[in-house]
Amino acid sequence: MQGWTGVFLNIDLTKSKAVPEQYDESLALNFLGGRGFAAKILWDRLKEGTEPLSPDNKLIFAAGPLTGIGLPNSGKLVVASKSPLTGGYGDGNIGTLAAVHMRKAGYDALIIEGKAQTPVIIHIKDKTTDFLDAKEYWGTSAFETEQQLRKKYSRTAGIVSIGQAGENLVKFATVVSQEGRAGGRPGMGAVMGSKNLKAIVIEGTLPIPLANPDDMKKLAADGYKEVLAKPLYAFWKRQGTMSTVEWSQENSVLPTFNYRQGVFNKAEGIGGFTMEKMKVSNRGCPQCNMTCGNVVKDSEGKDSELDYENVVMLGSNIGLGNLAQVATLNRLADEFGFDSISLGNVLGFAMEASEKRLIPEKIVWGDFEGIKTLINDIAYRRGLGAVLAEGVRAASATIGKGSGDWAMHVKGLEVTAYDCHTAPAMALAYGTSSIGAHHKDAWVITWEIKAGRESYDAGKVDYLIQSQLIRGGLFEALGVCRFPYNSLGFGLDWYQKYLKAATGVEFSLERLNEVSDRILNLVRAFWIREYGAKWSRDLDVPPMRWFKEPLTEGPLKGSTLDLEKYNTMLSAYYEKRGWDERGIPKKSTLAKLGLLDEAKQLDAYVKLGE
Questions:
Q1: What is the pTM assigned to this prediction?
Q2: Roughly how many angstroms between the first and final C-alpha of the chain, as a whole number?
Q3: Which residues of 302-337 are buried (b: 16+ CB within 10 A; e: fewer)?
Q4: In this structure, which CATH number among 3.40.930.10, 1.10.569.10, 2.60.40.10, 1.25.40.10 belongs to the domain 240-413?
Q5: Does the domain spanning 7-203 belong to CATH 3.60.9.10?
Q6: Amino acid 81: pLDDT
Q7: The domain 418-489+508-610: what is its CATH number?
């Protein structure tokens, strides 16, 4: 086997034991890696109904066949588990040196189970795995933990860790690396904390096996040059994703005051051009030459790494228009190990609940000092913070009084930074995303606005599905970042050539689409297996606010989504995916994708259509 190392490392924290496992080449060819490996491992090895924060849950770090190779943006690692936030499949990708070192240590995935008796750090050095006492690190931030571990090991070691949010089992805690890289929105940090696992340190020195190393060396060099030559490269280096603030404001899709509005009267103060004036450096993931992390000095004089999502969710969505203060909140989120998107969402929910006097606490829009206090309370589960630490779905169930209509989530995962009052295809992307309301599987909103935002037609469904296959399937499995393709127009043919040089296998686009479809259907099957009788197509419908409450400001004031038309789109989506009217894959669809055994197992939980 070339390209893949062919080995998983099974780690049992209860027994302090690590055992390498050779896996079959067919797994690699059928699922590629990353999300594909994670979904297959969880399906095969996790007992149905497992409590997400129990020792029995599995935490997976999975790479793809291109991860760690010196080609554009190949420093990505998927972290996955059964989600404590959603109860379904959960994952995220994180750009980290740990991705490179894991591959160079000889592993394509770490499969972690059990629970250590006391806090531990896993140290992997090539074929050796040690379990180290982490008591002195427990209670420290993710940043401080990594800084101390770098002093002990190496400046270039691969390190992932959790902060206090993960230790205290905040349901949207993430895994953090390199003081600003984070992944695992649906609570992967909480799963790590539930296992008493504070950090993983990886030092790999072995070569990644390649079928055609000379071809790869030339292709990689040519790819880097191609990225640099793209017309949008210079502006990307200046602003990265931050230019989206101005675009979203212009197009009335900027989340404002808990998604009540699509415009913010202080948007200029948190936008890309304001950021440029404050910027002190760029940061990026390993192997990247289009670094997207914009580092500014925050209101406390410390470095904070900004992008569009965290700025909007901790800015306009909570009524804060001062970018230096937004940067401080973002840094706190990273230090504590929160997902900044979900954090901004629960804060907005709390502010609206306070405004409507549904809770006794006074949480005021844009109150910087009050917000900082509440963030600390969430991290340590104090008072209202304990309610918000469960996420907006659970918080709205606790508070009640109609708050479920404006609890902005899908399947329990909080919506990312695009208001969809006027974007039905993007609303459908949120509704059908593999992990809940996330844009990474299908960021179709810019295309939709150009194509005509009013339409609910089948062409939008086709575009969405193809986008999901590429972004949510292919890139999540390859172990590379989607930004060169998505933001600069770096062609998919590059990845076919890289796969050939790495693995020696020819992958046509048709074959890659099939692999992606297989992965996404297996993820869907996992959700349905775990939800069982609770599964319903209503779970694929985004928040009622977008249907019931018109925009209150801006040029599109008065606009809402149409629920009947949305459901028509959803039915068309199901038909095109080969799913029934419940949103459940049919037997024939799973069989066509080589998932016949999985279909038989799923049929025992919920009767499948033919």
A1: 0.97
A2: 36
A3: ebbbbbbbbbbbbbbbbbbbbbbbbbbbbbbbbbbb
A4: 1.10.569.10
A5: yes
A6: 98
A7: 1.10.599.10
